Amino acid sequence: MINRRDFNKILLGTTALSFAACTGMPDLSLPANRKRVVIVGGGFGGATAAKYLKKFSPETEVFLIEQNKEYHTCPFSNTVIAGMNKIDYIKHDYKTLQSKYKVIVMHEKVKKVDGATNNVILEDGTAIPYTKAIVAPGIDFKYEKGYVEGSEEYAPHAYKAGAQTLLLTEQLQNMKDGGTFVMVSPKDPFRCPPGPYERVSLVAHYLKTNKPNSKIIILDQKNKFSKQALFQEGWEKLYPNMIEWRNVEFGGKVISVDAKNKIVKTEEEDVEADVLNYIPDQKAGKLAFDSGLTNGDWCPVNTKTFESKLVKNVYVIGDAAVASPMPKSGFSANSHAKIAALQISRILANKPVVNPPKLANTCYSLVSPNYGISIAAIYEAQEDKIVDLKDTVGAGGLSPAHADEGIRIQEAQYAVGWYKNQMSDIFR
After folding, report:
1. Residues 174 and 256 both lie in one domain
2. 392 versus 332: which is more confidently predicted?
3. What is the pLDDT of residue 1?
4. Which of 11, 202, 361, 411 is the most exposed place for a label (fewest CB within 10 A)?
């Protein structure tokens, strides 16, 4: 006689098969003789994990669930805002992951990852069972100080590339010569620490070329920022008297914002903008909270595997993961993904994990189209922490200060090369 548990298994499998047949979706039932990894999120982390899981473990069934059919990268989105590239330059799709690597790609919205039942639950209630799951939820924003959902229409953050990128680009193009571009830069930690300052640099390049009487004010919610000395050296050289940086202690602290009228109230004055780029403080993406993966704003992980410390068999990579001192960058997410994919492939094959794994990050920034700076680092995942190997010869470092023009040009070229190589590594 069939028991209730077996009946439910049969019913679930039959329902999944029927659903797949009617909708053209893949078979969602978990094969008894096959391992399955379901990845949620198709950015730098998720797409990399999908590709490398199939490279490391071709026999493993890999699902990649991403709501959008196209992905716009935050890296190099600042070049779009500055008019150096069109939006298609940062647009990518998942066709090669499907055709070449046999990743099963689904463009669906995920409600949550249910660690209790080992199922990814779609918005419509469909359950996709997994052996292991990888979650790359990215970031969400803290709406506060008057900056609420909908404020993006007036004061775009453009920290998720795509429509916001185009909106900020349009606003900048429509700004009068002699206008004021105001950026509010968030507290740490946030996605891509040099990103706001590269944006300011390239906006300054655009204004210098097209609207030279304009100015830029940065209202920073911290007292220092990544590659600060290198950025400020470039600003003084290329854009003298155009960029004013106010840190949180000296005029930058934001009390409230009126996004519609583009007025930012600080402790000292009301700052009026012609274009307001408000980048809110950040936290892990909503999916991480809904899936019980967060402690505070971010997701604690086992640093050697990126498995969640809170939910077994679920791995968190990219911006949402607690992986300090690694920055929340695209390169970091790519590095997390490769380690997670490698370790999962070994676990599924009953092999010991690599110990200790090494990780890397490089952040290139363009101060102008022909002026680049960078920071690079190598890391080692030790027991419950990630260590910057900065004292190891050849393990990274900063661009030299006061370098000659040739070095800055070369680094700008390296930045373009890095982006092209990363996109090839992830999507080709």
Report:
1. yes
2. 332
3. 36
4. 11
Structural domain span for residue 267: 147-280
**Phi/psi at 353 (5° precision):** -70, 155
Domain limit, last residue, from 353, 379, 402: 353
Assigned domain for 119 exists? yes
* Residue pointed to by tokens 């939820």: 137
Backbone angles phi, psi at 166, to 5 degrees: -65, -40
Q: How confident is the model at residue 24 (pLDDT cuts 50, 70, 90)?
A: low
Does a structural domain hold residue 402?
no
Query: Quick check: 40 pLDDT over 80?
Result: yes
Tell me how far apart the terminal alpha carbons of the chain are, to the nearest angstrom.
51
Tell me the pLDDT band of 14, cut-offs 50, 70 and 90. Answer: very low
Q: Residues 292, 275: one domain? A: no
Burial of 270 (0-12, 13-18, 19+ CB in 10 A): exposed
Asked whether residue 273 is domain-assigned, the answer is: yes
**Matching residue, tokens 């690694």:** 326
Q: Please, what is the average pLDDT of the chain?
A: 94
Q: What is the pLDDT of residue 307?
A: 98
CA–CA separation, 351 and 344 (whole Å): 10
- Contacts of 358 by beta carbon, 8 Å cutoff, 6+ apart: 378, 379, 380, 381
> According to the model, what pLDDT value does residue 32 have?
81
For residues 171 and 275, the answer to whether their CB atoms sit within 8 Å is yes
Cβ atoms of residues 106 and 301 within 8 Å: no
Residues 295 and 341 in one domain: yes
pTM over 0.90: yes
Tell me the CATH number at 93.
Answer: 3.50.50.60
Beta carbons of 204 and 239 less than 8 angstroms apart = yes
Whether the pLDDT of residue 272 is over 90: the answer is yes
Round to whole Å and give the CA distance between 95 and 353. Answer: 31
Contact 30, 20 (CB under 8 A): no
- Considering the domain architecture, whether residues 15 and 53 belong to the same structural domain is answered as yes
Characterise 247 by phi-psi region: left (phi > 0), alpha (psi -120 to 50), beta (else). beta
For residue 14, the one-letter residue type is T
- On whether both 118 and 205 belong to a single domain, the answer is no
Domain count, the chain: 2
Residue 94 included in any domain:
yes
Q: What's the rounded Cα separation, in Å, for the pair 164 and 169?
A: 8
